[in-house]
Structure to design on (652 residues):
């Protein structure tokens, strides 16, 4: 889990719940994790005793300063009689991680307190061939390999330093050297290396002193020297103040009226926007989650662009008034779309194709498969129309009309079963099943209608009619094949067993909200109403925690067989979106408020939302932060405020 990420679109630094730096991503968000998830340790020596802040002796409070991407961390060790307050950030426009450290002596006598900061860089995501050395030009420590350089410095200047071998034979690292309060390492080490610096503070009784610590990231020695000089020239405190102010202005730029929302919900809304910002790469990729702990159980991670997640996040940012971020996303999508008109499973931050498990060959039928989740293609076009409809940037979308919109729409029209008229089988949004899914069909309808809108706008009326006809055929087929009269609700999917053999999957799935969300059916249609009733009845977690599960008997990361699954933030917000859609009076929105308050209650103390919630304890489960969780919260709040305004106007 990652409790307090800080970043600027190029440099992302994440902390675990023990306040250890665990991930350092550069030069892309989510790509090149130069720690591989190994911790940077933070230790204190006083009165002959040593303690790492990850130990149970420390009480930790990990939060952010309000409305900023500057952390507010309080560390207290009553045994040592020390309290530490830290403020961390990544500069808004330079690749500099900056921390202010205030150390308080809680004893009634003078003493020396030594602070040790350790760095376990694994540059280019491996521990081999790194170099760490003391640089006399900058009077700082430098770690480098090839085109990646990291400079470490403090003000006042650190008193001692050490470079050495780590994870090699009997050498654990220089952090072990620090545990006696001294450092005896060398000025340069190559291979599998780490480094530690020590700052000595003489504190009177009840006195507090502070120092600043920073890490500059760059592509060359010259670049990090310039960044280091920049911090010195600007002064660290001024630099911190500037960054704090920048993010406060950024998150409040639209001066929104939050109506009757509570301070807790408003704070989570703003925190969500800021967290989303840390997960968006400057090149346009919107990363699902940057939490390297997941590799321990999956041998892979979430630090990828799924265009489905990206489209949902982009739509939320557009609703909240941040189109300058989403433009980069759509530009990237136009570059990476397959020549055949679809998006593959996922991509790296730089736009290259990422790891995947969707087969392109059916080993039984001996034929080619299209290895996609078709909703990932449809949702990009849907989100792009929503973007245009709000901001009317015709010069912007014109550039992508043929290369992205038409290409994807032509694929969606062609990728259909000739008899059923439904989209051909593909993987679902949860990536655990292949078939013709109701959610996928709904997104394709939304995508085709968006494409038809664009075609009409560019006076290609025959093309627009073609897309509209295909969308209408899919809607009719959904009603015929994907709605069960017997059950009185939509099916999750038609699951295929060969070319012609398929059966109905009757599992209740939260993603069925798509039947109304993308305008396929009216939210008040009995088909939708009955389906959403089934979701609330079958998937609401019947514990004190509450929330909505993904689908019946979901065993992914399941913590209890007593309930149908863990609560997912996105699924719970989808229920709120339905309540918004069918609300006729302000009183009808009460259930929406309850869900928004539920989210604020179940966020981490920092305001970070994980992927899932433990249905028994309310603890975070799986990765955190999940960008999709935060973006769906933002979108739901915006949908609520828009509907509330409409209802107020009607009542007046």
């Amino acid at each position: 889990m990652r409790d307090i990420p800080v970043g600027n679109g190029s440099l992302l630094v994440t902390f675990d719940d023990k306040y250890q730096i665990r991930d350092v991503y550069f030069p892309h968000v989510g790509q090149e994790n130069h720690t591989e998830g190994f911790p940077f340790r933070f230790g204190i020596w006083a009165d002959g005793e040593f303690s790492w802040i990850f130990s149970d002796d420390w009480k930790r409070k990990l939060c952010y300063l309000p409305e900023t991407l500057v952390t507010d961390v309080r560390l207290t060790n009553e045994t040592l009689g020390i309290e530490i307050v830290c403020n961390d950030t990544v500069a808004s426009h330079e690749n500099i991680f900056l921390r202010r450290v205030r150390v308080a002596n809680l004893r009634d006598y003078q003493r020396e307190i030594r602070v040790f900061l350790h760095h376990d860089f694994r540059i280019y995501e491996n521990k081999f061939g790194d170099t760490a050395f003391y640089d006399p030009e900058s009077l700082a420590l430098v770690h480098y390999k090839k085109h990646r350089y990291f400079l470490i410095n403090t003000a006042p200047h650190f008193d001692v330093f050490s470079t050495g071998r780590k994870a090699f034979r009997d050498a654990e690292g220089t952090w072990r050297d620090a545990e006696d309060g001294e450092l005896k390492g060398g000025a340069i080490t190559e291979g599998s290396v780490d480094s530690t610096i020590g700052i000595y503070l003489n504190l009177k009784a009840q006195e507090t002193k502070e120092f600043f610590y920073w890490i500059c990231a760059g592509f060359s020695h010259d670049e990090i020297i310039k960044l280091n000089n920049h911090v010195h020239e600007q002064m660290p405190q001024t630099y911190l103040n500037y960054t704090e102010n920048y993010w406060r202005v950024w998150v409040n730029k639209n001066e929104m009226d939050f109506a009757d929302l509570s301070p807790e919900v408003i704070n989570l809304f703003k925190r969500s926007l800021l967290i989303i910002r840390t997960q968006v790469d400057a090149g346009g990729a919107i990363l699902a989650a940057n939490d390297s702990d997941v590799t321990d159980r999956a041998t892979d991670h979430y630090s990828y662009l799924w265009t489905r997640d990206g489209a949902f996040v982009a739509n939320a940012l557009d609703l909240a008034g941040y189109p300058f971020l989403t433009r980069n996303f759509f530009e990237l999508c136009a570059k990476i779309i397959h020549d055949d008109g679809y998006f593959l499973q996922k991509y790296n931050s730089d736009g290259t194709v990422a790891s995947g498990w969707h087969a392109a060959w059916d080993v039984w039928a001996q034929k080619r498969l299209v290895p996609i989740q078709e909703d990932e293609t449809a949702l990009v076009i849907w989100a792009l129309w929503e973007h245009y409809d709000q901001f009317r940037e015709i010069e912007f979308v014109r550039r992508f009309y043929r290369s992205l919109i038409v290409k994807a729409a032509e694929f969606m029209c062609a990728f259909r079963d000739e008899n059923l008229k439904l989209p051909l089988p593909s993987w679902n949004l949860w990536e655990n099943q292949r078939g013709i899914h109701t959610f996928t069909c709904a997104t394709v309808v939304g995508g085709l209608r968006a494409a038809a809108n664009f075609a009409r706008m560019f006076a290609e009326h025959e093309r627009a009619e073609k897309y509209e006809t295909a969308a209408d055929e899919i809607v009719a087929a959904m009603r015929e094949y994907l709605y069960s009269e017997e059950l009185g609700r939509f099916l999750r999917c038609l699951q295929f067993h060969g070319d012609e053999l398929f059966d109905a999957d009757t599992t209740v799935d939260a993603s069925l909200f798509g039947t109304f969300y993308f305008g396929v059916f009216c939210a008040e249609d009995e088909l939708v109403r009955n389906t959403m009733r089934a979701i609330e009845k079958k998937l609401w977690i019947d514990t004190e925690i509450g929330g909505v599960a993904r689908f019946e008997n979901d065993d992914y990361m399941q913590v209890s067989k007593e309930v149908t699954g863990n609560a997912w933030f996105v699924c719970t917000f989808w229920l709120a979106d339905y309540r918004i859609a069918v609300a006729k009076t302000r009183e009808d929105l009460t259930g929406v408020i309850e869900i928004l308050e539920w989210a604020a209650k179940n966020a981490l103390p920092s305001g970070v939302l994980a992927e899932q919630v433990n249905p028994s304890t309310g603890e975070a489960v799986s990765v955190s932060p999940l960008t999709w969780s935060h973006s769906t919260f933002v979108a739901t709040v915006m949908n609520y405020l828009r509907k509330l305004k409409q209802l107020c106007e009607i009542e007046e």
Notes: The chain has a mean pLDDT of 96. The first helix runs from residue 174 to 177. The chain has three domains: 6-251, 254-283+540-652, 308-538. The longest strand covers residues 193-203.
